[in-house]
Write a structure and sequence with these properties.
By secondary structure, the chain is an alpha+beta fold. It has helices at 21-30, 99-118, 121-135, 141-148, 150-168, 173-194, 198-209, and strands spanning 2-7, 13-18, 34-37, 42-45, 54-61, 68-74.
Length: 210
């Protein structure tokens, strides 16, 4: 069922995730939020790798008994972008994202989908990362990594490497595929930050083959 997470002090809505019976029991046991990922079909302890845990103060459920409300004391930002709350973009007349900008974003998303079908995915993703570094668009996780600097990028590479190792010991295989994709992305961000291109890696592999 859906789980709304709210700051115990400020009452700001921080995020929305999902729980199942096991994750809810673990939340009660640990005193920190534990959710269920529908995409990965696995439990995830919020902040286990980032340190941005959420200490549970109170738990409520709604009148239909189909939604959970966590009141928490957060140890850091709830959003993976580094924002305090996942709800930081407003849809209204005064929003900074104008209709034409939204159309541009939609067109870019369509172009990305097309390019992924016609280009080498690694090369395309690397080029996209370079564009993000040059343009530094708001609300971009890649922008956030470059703003935080090399130490943050290295930390993420380390975390994702550990996730790949853990996934390698577990079933199903999809978990390993998912975590490997995360690692490849963060490695490409690291290469972009250091000014190293994928072709340099290819050349090194060719040398070793010879």
């Amino acid at each position: 069922m859906p789980a709304v997470v709210q700051d115990y002090q400020t009452k700001e809505v921080l995020m929305v995730a999902y729980v199942n019976k096991e994750s809810l029991n673990l939340s009660l046991e640990k005193g920190e939020t534990v959710f269920y990922s529908r995409s990965r079909q696995e439990l995830w302890h919020k902040g286990e790798t980032s340190g941005n845990t959420q200490e549970i103060k109170e738990i409520y459920y709604d009148c239909d008994q189909d939604t959970i409300l966590f009141l928490v004391e957060p140890a850091g930002p709830a959003c993976h972008t580094g924002k305090t709350s996942c709800f930081y973009r407003k849809i209204a007349e005064e929003t900074e994202i104008k209709a034409e900008e939204m159309m541009k974003m939609q067109q870019e998303a369509q172009n990305i989908e097309t390019d992924f079908e016609t280009k080498n995915v690694v090369d395309f993703l690397y080029d996209l990362i370079l564009r993000r570094r040059e343009e530094m668009p708001e609300d971009s996780y890649t922008t956030y990594l470059f703003e935080e600097g090399i130490d943050k990028i290295l930390k993420k590479v380390g975390e994702e490497s550990a996730e790949v190792i853990i996934a390698s010991k577990n079933d199903p295989d999809q978990e390993l595929v998912y975590e490997t994709a995360d690692l490849v992305y963060h490695m490409l961000v690291l290469l972009a930050a250091r000014g190293i291109e994928p072709d340099q890696i290819r050349e090194e592999l060719k040398k070793r083959h010879k």
